Amino acid sequence: MTLTTEEARTIADAFLEAAQAIDKYLDDNFNQISRAEYEFLSESFKTLMRVSIFTTTTAVGLAIDALEEPVIQLKNVIEQTKEKIEELQAVGRVIRFVAGLADLAAAITAKDPNAIAASVTHLDKLINESWIM
Amino acid sequence: MTLIKQRKKWFLAVAVSGIVLFAVACADLTAVREWSKTSLEATRYNELVITYADTPERLKRYDTAGTWDDQIAVRKNQAEALSQILSLVSDYMAALSTLSADSTIDYDKDVDALNIAIGKLNAGVSTDTMGAVNSLVKTVLGAAAKAYQAKQVTNIVAQANDPLQAILRGELRKIVDQDFRRDLKIEKTLLDRYYDSHLQIGSPSSAAKTALEEWKELRLKQNAIRLKAVDAYLEVLDKIAEGHQKLYNNRNKLNAKNLIKDLYSLAVELRKQINILAES
Lengths: 133, 280
Hints:
By secondary structure, chain A is an all-alpha fold. Helices cover 87% and strands 0% of the residues of chain A. Chain A folds into two domains: 5-66; 71-129. In chain A, helix 1 packs antiparallel against helix 2 and helix 3 (68-109) runs antiparallel to helix 4 (113-129). The longest helix of chain B is centred in the middle third of the chain and has 74 residues, at 127-200. The chains are: A mainly alpha, B mainly alpha.
């Protein structure tokens, strides 16, 4: 039977509470217990704390696994959002491309070789940046 | 009335009707944008994940016999996974902020450039007419883009809400509230016992006692700061979840006054928590 996240957390909490109970006992009875008893209880205290930490790590691992599905869903939504942003930004690129074409047409009409060359270079740059190509 | 004047009147009527229709459909996305920008800033805080990953390393001070190296390795991988989840929430907020930004649909400069280029064609259209057409194109294009933008924001918020709530209010919240908090309680209890046992046993000198007490105080203070960061981060997760739920509930009326007011209030509260986290 596999452990659930809630079970792991319950165990971690239980071990921490047990360790805290020993800690309180040691503080309240330090002058009444022998050195050997003190050492024994100290070691028990540390063991309980270690188990609590280890079970916390297990709980976090199980919780991360449980997040897998909503994470995938959110990733898909982010991809769609980026596509929508791209669509909105493409409108600007189309307008710039049409402006580039009109510029080239004007340069050809004016029979201005320098203006033609500049327009062609500009259009080439737009095409390389654009989703059109 | 001449044919040209009739056509101009007809065109103007259609354009104005279109603008009115678009205006009715348009939403003010400023609050969406500002709230998602603040949420983005809040989710960039990564210190709690690092604190969680480093706990076994810190606990080595107080329990040298423990086998901490395996824990350190496992937690390092978990920290990587948790950081990626937080980055995903950040990415969503960034994308939502960009989608709802005015700059995303600002085509004014592009339309101006087109106007200039057409002007060079010398097609016999007067400068005044070109200017009027330019303004009209900007207005109609801007209104259409705004309406489309608002619709996309509505769709994206509708799709994102379920998985986002599952993450923010689900296991991620429990990891922070229960597991990170327990880790810090374990550390506090261990360091208390460690310093108390050194103070109680072996009759340390006065100087040694003072030094031990100072170190204990320092470590307890660091622990308390980390616990405060846990509380602040829980507030962050709760406020982001609350804000997005409000967006979802009002997704068909994004310019509703109470929504804008609520989102601004949430952004202010989020900023307070961001400041607490920055100080921790």
